[in-house]
Request: fold
Amino acid sequence: MAQWLTGTVIENKRWNDQLFSIRVEAPPFDFIAGQFVRLGLPGAEKRIQRAYSLVNSPDDPILDFLVTAVLEGELSPRLDLLQPGDTVEVSQPPSGFFVLNEIPDGETLWLISTGTGIGPYLSMLGTELPWQRFGKIILVHGVRHVQDLCYQEHIQRWQHEHPNQLIYQPVVTREVHFGALQARIPALIASGELEQQVGVPLNQAAQVMLCGNPQMITDAKAALLAKGLDKNLRRKPGHVTVEQYWKE
Reply:
């Protein structure tokens, strides 16, 4: 049964009208980069709760959650209104197997996401593990609008620290943006345009993580399978590891 910690909001950072990051100070706990907890607020009859990945890395004491305000959602519109000094409940223990410890070895690591699905990758990139294990890391973030390309300061810092190792590829479907591709990620995989743009082959030397819109994941898995990259399972190691990341 889950236990709950009480955290205090220290920042509600706005990325745009719908996208925001809640930063929370709470009693310390251990987790693995890529795992999630549940955030909760009191409801009329019971606690309203949803799962959110931790964006911060395990050595960062301030918890960070990337949230899209869903108009009809029960929790996200209320999280949207939180201000410094407000409290929010955080579940324990952390959960999830979308972690680098579950990923087989490879030459390249592809971190492919849409929307808030970039969150667990930011947590991973803040640790030493990916840099030690993979020669090239390709971070792909698919969004609708340029203003959804969040955490640029983090990404630019890692690019500066690992200039020959990290490749960042934005994908913006509804606007033209310099350096960004403009198509659905599965189509970019299937056509080979994604590989061509980043200059790294998507072959059996690659490990691919997918996190975000369920339809993107379904279609991207099919495109990757056509390239000979099958799903990674504990009982049968493969090349593609997925996280269904559709949260309010």
Q: What stands out?
A: The mean pLDDT is 96. The radius of gyration is 18 Å.
